[in-house]
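Practice problem: predict the structure.
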Amino acid sequence: MRINTLAATNFKNIADARLEFSPKTNCFLGDNGMGKSNLLDAIYYLSFCKSFSGLPDSSVMRLGEEFTTLRGTYLRRGVDEEVTVGLQAARRKSVRRGGKEYERLSAHIGVFPLVMVSPADQELVSGSGEERRRFMDQVVSQADPVYLDHLIRYDRALSQRNRMLRDRVVDHTLYEALELTLARSAAYITRARLRWVEELTEIFRPIYASIAADGEVPALELKGHLAADPEALPELLDQCRRHDEMVGHTSVGPHRDDLSLWLNRLPVRRAASQGQCKSYTVALRLAQWTFLEQSAGFKPLLLLDDVFDKLDARRVERLMEMVSGDRFGQIFVTDTNRGHLDAIMERSGGEHRSWLVENGAFTPNNQPGV
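Answer:
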């Protein structure tokens, strides 16, 4: 799969941009804050119907404007496709595929798979369990629409149960009816996460080794109340009901899961250097890409935002060897260091395009060797 063109109007600091992409490598060079990452976020938005940064839709509109539009044309499974997004102040978001508006935005997730590597991935190591759950859910949801449906059902039932707890509802019959829905979805979510962790670990280890090449051994593990028994939620909820009534929220379930990250049998967040952490998160994202490729049957888009920061020269060299070949299909790279992008172009040897980025404007750069 590839995206052929992008048109963006009033998206963050991009007033108006019309870009035609290379089917292989697309590079964006400029200082920080100029709009490189915003361009990648626009591509991300077309796949996920939301900003990678987590900003609300009102905040992705360019300052002083009241609407935003995005339009991407794709080649997917040999067929031309078009996705458009329309945002307007105080209006419902519109997402269309082939001119037809989605009734449920969740139906769009996974249709145009994409992986973005960014400095924010550091939160996978240093952040809370919520960050790692979001990572799991994003990957598995793109590969399994049923998983996404169960996530939505589980979150809805969880919100209802928490509301009942806060309102001091004491009718256990009501709780049991709601907890039946929770348990069914929790079992599916947990089994899917366990399978995914096992599959991703097998993909992740050789990718990490190819970047680090130091004999380091990474590992992933799902930590959660149901990891040992996905069917155990009804019993756990019953055991914790008195405690949950006191604290006013549900204390057990997949919403409390975490993904443990290990390196040489030690927690990454405590034992790894900055370079090791960056290598770890980049390898995780590239493993995510491979997992999605296997699930979808075609190559997702790969977005590399400031990916070389905090990597020593040796790890940069190995990473460039990986992304410069044919393995990853269409890629988008941003950097402030022209040398990195020149090296990628020299290694790839194939078709590529590059732009200089300044204040949300994109100027094609066709200098030899770039």
